[in-house]
Design brief:
Strand content: 15-25%
Low-confidence stretches: none
CATH class: Alpha Beta
Number of helices: 9
Number of strands: 8
CATH topology: Aminopeptidase
Structural class: alpha/beta
Bound molecules: phenylalanine, calcium ion, zinc ion
Radius of gyration: 17 Å
Distance between the termini: 22 Å
Helix content: 25-40%
């Protein structure tokens, strides 16, 4: 698969940290920091040649926004989607949760745009708002689709917390509409020598609305408030008996709260999925 540059990915995270610093310390739905995050991501995507849409919806924090970006081309009539939530909690800047998924998906999109690849499917990237209030942005997006739009979406792959400072490598296993994405993610980890485990995220992220709509989903996760076991530390390194992310939903979730090797490996995983799904014969995803 492609090498998505980790230094460019980390540079987006530094910009998201600066946005929080300049706007009262967070990027939560309804805040100036969220609006600046939307402007940052949309600006980069527009400059790269994406067709972007800002979709408005109501949330408990007032009006919020999703950013949706399509790469032009793709004539199969099928859409492959990749997404991450763009908002933070109110307690902090949200750099691992979920600047990491945002930066990984954004840099993959920008690298794809420069690559000269010719997709057969429509490649769509989504940056969701108000995830932290209860998955409002992704739920609104799926609810707004016509039945034809819904059936055109062949896959949704989610990236929420992919650079935890004491990382694990977890692959979602709650894919009631088929395990094709899960199996492609684990095959990629196998190919690059990353040991992995399944996790059941129990609908706790933005793939949940896609599951409910009957769309095949999947995702990867580097761990949150759960504790890393000795067996997991033996497998992945890091600290046994400590949380995967000790700053989960706290003010210390800053640009220091990252494992850059996990960021690199997981961003390259996004790259592998985008490159392969852009031209995938979608009758084979189930
Ligand atoms: N969605 C959760 C949050 O943003 C974290 C999470 C990610 C949980 C992935 C499960 C799987 O706080
Ligand atoms: Ca890389
Ligand atoms: Zn969160
Ligand atoms: Zn999250
Ligand atoms: Zn691969």
């Amino acid at each position: 698969g492609p090498d998505i540059p980790v230094d460019a990915t980390k540079a987006h995270l530094d910009q998201l940290q600066k946005i929080a610093d300049d706007n009262g310390g967070n990027r939560a739905a309804g805040s100036a920091g969220y609006q600046a995050s939307v402007d940052y991501v949309k600006g980069k995507l527009d400059e790269a040649g994406f067709t972007t849409t800002v979709q408005e919806f109501d949330s408990p924090n007032g009006t919020s926004y999703n950013v949706i970006a399509d790469w032009p081309g793709g004539t199969s009539g099928k859409v492959v989607m990749f997404g991450s939530h763009l908002d933070s909690v109110e307690e902090g800047p949200g750099i691992n949760d979920n600047g990491s998924g945002t930066a990984g998906v954004l840099e993959t999109a920008l690298t794809y745009a420069k690559s000269g690849e010719k997709p057969t499917n429509t490649v769509r990237f989504a940056f969701w708002g108000a995830e932290e209030q209860g998955l409002y942005g992704s739920t609104h997006y799926v609810d707004s689709l016509s039945s034809g739009d819904t059936s055109a979406i062949a896959s949704y792959t989610n990236f929420d917390m992919i650079a935890s400072p004491n990382p694990g490598y977890f692959v979602y296993d709650d894919n009631s509409n088929g395990n094709g994405i899960r199996d492609d993610l684990t095959a990629h980890y196998d190919e690059v020598g990353v040991k992995w485990e399944y996790t059941d995220p129990q609908g706790r992220s933005d793939h949940a609305a896609f599951i409910d709509a009957g769309i095949p989903t999947g995702g990867v996760y580097s761990g949150g408030e759960e504790t890393k076991s000795q067996a997991q530390a033996d497998k992945w390194g890091g600290e046994a008996g400590a949380e995967f992310d000790p700053c989960y939903h706290q003010s210390c979730d800053t640009s220091q709260n990252l494992d850059l090797d996990a960021l690199d490996k997981n961003t390259d995983t996004i790259g592998a999925m985008v490159w392969s799904y852009a031209t995938k014969d979608l009758n084979t995803i189930t």
